[in-house]
Amino acid sequence: MTATVAPVRGSGAAASGPRRLGRSSRWIALLVLVVLTLAACLASIAIGTRAIGLGEVWQVLFDSGLSSEEAVIVRQLRVPRTVLGLMVGIALGVAGALMQGHTRNPLGDPGLLGVTAGASLAVVLSIVLLGIGTPSGYVWFAFLGALVGTVLVYAIGSAGRGGATPVTLALAGAALSALMYGLVRAVLVSDQQTLDSFRFWVVGALAGRDADVAWQVAPFIALGLLLALANAPALNLLGLGEDVARGLGQRIWLARTVGLASITLLAGAATAACGPIAFVGLVVPHAVRAVTGPDHRWLVPGSALAGAVLLLTADVVGRIVARPGELQVGIVLALIGAPFFIALVRRRKTAGL
Amino acid sequence: MSAPAIDPPATTARTGTVVRIGRVSGIVRWRQLVVPLTAVVVLVLLSAVSLGRGDFPIGVPDVLRTLAGLGDGTQDFIILELRAPRVVVGLLVGLALGVAGALFQTFARNPLASPDTLGITMGASVGAVAAIVLSSGGAFGGALATLGIPLAALLGALLVGVLLFGLTWRAGIDGYRLVLIGIALWSVSTALVDWLLTHAEIYDAAAAYVWITGSLNARTWDDAAPLAVALVVLLPLALGASRALGVLQFGDDTARGLGVRLQTAQAAVVLIAIGCVAFAVSAAGPITFVALVVPQIALRLTGGSRPPLLASGLLGAVLVVGADLVTRTVLPQALPVGILTAVLGAPYLLWLLVRGRRQFT
Q: Which family does it belong to (chain B) (predicted)?
């Protein structure tokens, strides 16, 4: 493994772009992200309609005997929600990094592979045909839809003579998503009741999910993360071009399949749990790449942590700004995240893919 | 800069015939002539059929006679006042979106770059949805309501367009930076639209959703006129910028070396594209996926090295007019045209991808 990775390290360091961090500073950057993630988790547990002091949070977390009102809120509402936000943030950040690597396109968000469109179509059908109307009820339909969507995109994207190239994958994803969204819209335009349920799902939110949802999607996200970490070195090779990668002994179809399976699991599970949240997968990898450079062995873990920090922070902010109500996390993310991202893009040269 | 894999397709496998007349010679690429010409013929036929179909069917010869100014009063009224505006708006919108998509995709060297993904059509949606949803309350809502939906959409699109241009501009426009900032603007606009939809009364939300999908229902000459004027100005400019656009593909340094005024050319291309989109979206809503899908179809049909401008525009018009005809005649229930453009256009692109006559990598 190390032998195949060596040339990448050289080329990564030589690539043009922003200042490169040395190995030790990249470790420090990761460490900072870990600390930020922990801080975001604590904030997410402590802050809400009813503020709970950090000391109290600590007590409740480590003393299972407590049964005060605060303890109930923390255990049954805040902790499941925080765990869900943590997992979804990690999943979306990683899926975005992989997707941009595989399509070699800065516009490659995980939804591009048909995940979001497939999930949306499945959710709409579950509302229309089965009369399901709660976020927890959509989970498995959305996941199934995401799986079917990606499999179709991959099948069509790799059916052409050249196999699954970045361009055919991206275009197959865009075209198939267009088709599926067309069907979604056909239903929504003619059925007002379905639109009434769907418009709340499509925003993307952590609120209103059962505590079980986090545990239902956890195994898929865990498997997806393992595949993603395994895929990172191969993705570096693919970045050199398919011919070079093949020459260096990489099995292209294997790398693509593992990567796309990982994206499907991660983005599918995240979308199933929270609805479509495009921003994290789209923007986090760009921001992280500006620090780590294009090496996916750093980019993947970095995007995971940064995704979690961003999602949890946005969720907490959404609870604060619209008290006593809440602003959905998908909306807060874009409204706070986008100006920050634009400033980043303008201030320094972002690293190319 | 963009990765090699998303650069324009290799140009090796072009078909062309060398034509020599006296001392002048040049390569005629037949497919680049045949495709636009066929598109024009199909467009005329589709329009004629479309003008004739409806609750009061009129045959194609009668339609042509009316267009030539020889029809009787009833047919004149039905065709020229009721049906023609709809067909003309569809045609112009398809034209504008196709050209704008080709401009963006070529400029950013990215097949996914389009006014849809860069947030411009979403900006229009913010304007229009706000005008629909907020019209009932508040001073701001009242102001929006008096503005009217088309104007609100135009302003929304232009606002995002100006932001896109202004934020991307740093002594020139880099295609990669354009895409990244476009993503951010798209995210914000989408979030605003979603937020407005969740806070709307359900009947307002339903009306807004139809608008977001893109519809040609009940269009009048008033909708067609601003778009027509805009295109009369913008289309020649776009075709004029075509050569510079081709040279820009070789990279900034080469383009400068070949005598292109880099900043002027970049600004022109992006501003023309934004203008086309803004007026098109204001007239018919963001008819989805035309700008994304059609240039790629045109590219694969003509076999050039980049999406051809004119062919993209004409095929866009064919798609929109054809989709509108299908919604009005074949389907049991009239759906907004934006659904059909996706459902008809996407499978065609997929088929072209699977068939893969050439490797576009």
A: Belongs to the binding-protein-dependent transport system permease family. FecCD subfamily.
Residue A340 lies in a domain: yes
Residue A350's pLDDT band (cuts 50, 70, 90) = low
Domain count, chain A: 1
Residue B352: count of CB within 10 angstroms of its CB: 19
In a domain, A238, yes or no: yes
B330 in contact with A, Cβ within 8 Å: no
Chain A's closest residue to B295, CA to CA, is A171
Q: For residue B32, what are its two tokens? A: 């680049």
Closest CA to A102 of A277, A305, A245: A245
CA distances from A206 to A18, A74, A79, A315, B48 (A): 35, 15, 12, 7, 52
Could you list the residue range(s) of the whole structural domain that residue A86 is in?
82-347
> Who among B3, B180, B342 is closest to A345 (CB)?
B180
CB-CB under 8 Å, B177 with A189: no
Q: Please list the alpha-helical segments (H only) found in chain A.
A: 2-14, 23-46, 54-62, 69-72, 79-103, 115-130, 135-157, 166-190, 192-201, 211-238, 242-247, 252-274, 278-292, 296-321, 329-347
Residue numbers in B near A182 (CB within 8 A):
288-289, 339-343, 346
CB atoms within 10 A of CB A240: 16
Q: What is the DSSP letter of A19?
A: P
pLDDT value at B326 more than 50: yes
pLDDT tens digits, residue range B80-100? Answer: 888 888 899 999 999 999 999
Which positions 58-87 of B are in contact with A (Cβ < 8 Å)?
none
pLDDT-based confidence at B6, cuts 50/70/90?
Answer: very low
Output the average pLDDT for chain A: 81
The CATH number given to whatever domain includes residue A285 is 1.10.3470.10
- Local confidence band at A18 (pLDDT 50, 70, 90 cut-offs): very low
**Better-predicted residue by pLDDT, A19 or B307:** B307
Mean pLDDT over A204-212 rounds to: 77
Query: Which CATH number does the domain B93-355 belong to among 3.40.50.300, 1.10.3470.10, 3.60.140.10, 3.40.50.620?
Result: 1.10.3470.10
What pLDDT does residue A4 have?
35
Helical H runs in chain B? 30-52, 60-67, 73-76, 84-108, 120-133, 138-147, 149-168, 175-199, 202-213, 221-240, 242-248, 252-257, 262-284, 290-302, 309-329, 337-355
- A61 occurs within a structural domain: no
Total number of residues shown for chain A: 353
B307: contact with A, CB 8 A cutoff? no
- What is the tens place of the pLDDT at every residue in B264-289? 888 888 999 999 999 999 998 888 78
